[in-house]
Amino acid sequence: MTAPRELRHGAGPGLDALDHAILKVLHRDPRAPFAEVAAAVGAHERTVARRLERMTADGRVAFVAALVPEYQYEGVTAEVAVRCAPGRVHEVALTLAALEETRSVEVATGALDVFVELHAPGHDALLTLVDTAIGRLDGVVDIHSAVVLRLLLTASDWAPYDDEPTDVRRHAVEGTTLPEPPVVDELDRRLVELLRRDARMSTTRLARELSVGETTARRRLARLMDSHVLHLRLHADPAVLGYPVEARFRLGVPHRELAQAIRLLAREPALRHLVVTSGGTSLLGYSSHRDTRDFQEFATRVFARLEGVTSTETALLMRTYKRAGFASGGGEGARARGPAGG
Question: What share of the chain is helix, strand, coil (3-state, %, to 5)?
Fold first, then answer.
């Protein structure tokens, strides 16, 4: 697997070397104490705290904590492409981003104007959401939906600072099955809700808020963090980290070639999201790049290696309205329902 380059060139807007050094440590451990981060980057604790506060206050960086329903076999996730009437794209995208059920909303090049990832409790709820909440919006001309059958990679598996793949990506590369997820009970869900409000909340405070002993809180947190069902991560738009070009692709892959295609795609560090969907195209993915030349090289090299591909559709994202459950800008405009997308 080719290792991603550390961010030395093409740094994100307004971030310097120290900012990136701080983000590198927090990318690996979002709950790392300031003293540990400061020691790793060679700066004072107060400097680290001020830098992080500045990056979170202006929305460039946020912390995401959520259980991944796909890994718990809960509800149904769908990828929806919405074609809009001319002049209505922005209005429709804003309305879709405001829906609690949507995780990501973006506008991309191509015939279909707005792409949406959403999660619903079940297929009946999905039908109602697509037909009513989306289908009846002024400006919506056409809708195409596909159900996510298998979640392979998420933004938590995109590691621009690290050479080593995550455990989830390693399983995808090796073609092995993820371990069975742990059973999540009400105490676990309350713990995750506290982390959603403040991912860096101390274990002492977590225990106090949960009315349990600190040992219990620490053990529960460690069990969840060691599994793939909890995504607790540093969140930043790829552009902030120096990857301003984002691409979306759909590939038609016969079932007999699907496993090999997944293994080959998962080896690519640029890939930050990959799912198997229903419908005429089997694979849907997102990738992040430093520039359009980087994307063109990626598409030419990677897609040419895939056997049996019957169709290829690529689009570049022009604007993101919602990502990982957060409205554009990363503020409090939307709650993080789940981190699978974006």
Answer: 40, 25, 35
What length does the chain have? 342
Pairing of strands 245-252, 283-289: antiparallel
Q: Residue 118 has which token pair?
A: 């959403």
Kindly indicate the confidence band of residue 335, based on its pLDDT and cuts at 50, 70 and 90.
Answer: very low
| Burial of 195 per CB tally in 10 Å (0-12, 13-18, 19+) | buried
Q: How confident is the model at residue 172 (pLDDT cuts 50, 70, 90)?
A: very high
Cα dihedral value 131, 135, 137, 138, nearest 10? -150
8 A C-beta contact, residue 190 and residue 210: yes
Q: Residue 33 is encoded by which pair of tokens?
A: 């104490």
Residue 215 identity (one-letter amino acid)? T
Q: What is the pLDDT of residues 191-230, one digit of tens each?
A: 999 999 999 999 999 999 999 999 999 999 999 999 999 9
Please write the tens of the pLDDT for every residue from 17-26.
999 999 999 9
Contact predicate 66/325, CB 8 Å: yes
Round to whole Å and give the CA distance between 305 and 261.
9
Task: Please state the pTM of the whole predicted model.
Answer: 0.88
Distances (CA, A) of 247 to 107, 109, 217, 285: 11, 10, 40, 8
Three-class SS state of 166: coil
127-145 burial, b if ≥16 CB within 10 A, otherwise e? Answer: eebbeeebeebebbeebeb
pLDDT in tens, 235-266: 988 999 999 999 999 999 999 999 999 999 99
Closest-CA residue to 262 (of 274, 273, 277, 254): 274
Reduced to 3 states (helix: H, G, I; strand: E, B; else coil), residue 164 is coil
Classify 120 in phi/psi space as left (phi over 0), alpha (psi -120 to 50) or beta: beta
Q: What type of residue is 153?
A: L
- CB-based contacts of 7: which residues, under 8 Å, 6+ apart? 20, 24, 160, 161, 241, 242
- Please give the angle made by the CA atoms of 73, 154 and 190, to the nearest 5 degrees: 55
